Amino acid sequence: MEIEQLLCTADGASLAYLGDCVFELWVRRRLLLSGLTGTGALNEAARRFVTAKNQCAAFRRIEGMLTEEEQAYFRRGRNSPHLSVPRSASGAEYRTASGFETLCAALYLDGKEERLDELLTAAFAKEL
After folding, report:
1. pTM (2 decimals)?
2. Catalytic residue at 20?
């Protein structure tokens, strides 16, 4: 399957699955670039970013920066019927986090890694 076809046909939950990895890789790279060392410290720091609550808050900080296409990817993930909500987040937070992850996957698959970095840097400007 071609990337363009995948972007058009994959459901939001599947894209969120990939987006979770894309986002975590971005976080880990940024933590290393910040000078943090030691796997324990790195893992502890990364865990603070990859929660549904933090992803929801991050999305709220960049929501106004999104293009119409990016908003559509977000909605696709947020509205996915295949989501099971963890106890650590509300349903609304988890749906927003899933939309956020879907957006990360879509930008990555579409080769827009500079845009992805721009949005994530803005979303976490105070944390990193």
Report:
1. 0.91
2. yes
What are the percentages of helix, strand and coil residues in the chain, rounded to 5? Answer: 75, 0, 25
Tell me which of 11, 20, 110, 117 is the catalytic residue: 20
Alpha-carbon distance of 56 to 21, in angstroms, equals: 16
Q: Quick: pLDDT tens for 4-28.
A: 888 888 888 899 999 999 999 999 9
Quote the mean pLDDT of the chain.
Answer: 91
CB neighbours of 122 closer than 8 A, spacing ≥ 6?
Answer: 61, 62, 65
Token pair of 127 as six digits: 């944390």
3 state DSSP class of 86: coil
DSSP H or E segment with residue 91:
helix 91-109
Question: If you search the block for the tokens 């699955």, which residue do you land on?
Answer: 17
Give the span between the Cα atoms of 96 and 48, in whole angstroms. Answer: 17
Which structure tokens are listed for 14?
A: 């599947």
